[in-house]
Amino acid sequence: MNFLPSMRNPSGHSLRGWGISLLLAQIAPSRADEIFSRGWDYCNSRVIVGAHWQSDVDASRTAASIGFCALQGSEAFIAQMKKAQQEYQEKTGSAGMRTVVAPDNQSSARIYRIDGTAVDENAHGIIVEEGKKIVKP
């Protein structure tokens, strides 16, 4: 590959770490922020411990991203990705989840459980009221 001619000592750890971050974020897009944050920090750790220069890590991230983009054109990869997404949804119970956003003029919204039943005022756990998390024992 000669698309990154300045990459003399790429970081294999960063290449794998960022590639896995891309993969996991596609499987669980609702967790992408956390996944990418952890992957970014993992790659930067190679510079922190003195194993690589920042340019090596940056180039490895680029190489992983290019390779991952190339996979998006593979029918076999897409088929396996769909299976992985379905398995993740089944294992985490996120298959039927929807995000509901309250209108701007509404400070509190009615809260529902995953099964669709309304939560009453006697509910316990962590709820959100007026934009703040509240613990109800």
Structural class of the helix and strand makeup? mainly alpha
Binned strand content: 5-15%
How many separate domains?
A: 2
Q: Cα distance, first to last residue? A: 58 Å
* pLDDT averaged residue by residue: 80
In short:
The chain is mainly alpha-helical and 137 residues long. The protein folds into two domains: 12-92, no CATH class; 98-137, no CATH class. It is 50% helix and 7% strand.
Annotate the secondary structure layout.
Blueprint: H1 12-27, H2 32-48, H3 54-71, H4 75-92, E1 125-129, E2 132-136
Helix pairs in contact: 1-2, 1-3
Structure description:
The chain has 137 residues and is mostly helical. It has two domains: 12-92, no CATH class; 98-137, no CATH class. It is 50% helix and 7% strand. It contains four helices and two strands; from the N terminus they run ααααββ. The protein has a two-stranded antiparallel ribbon with strand order 1-2. A hairpin with a 2-residue loop joins β1 and β2.
Name the descriptors:
flat, two-stranded antiparallel sheet, 4 helices, mainly alpha, 137 residues
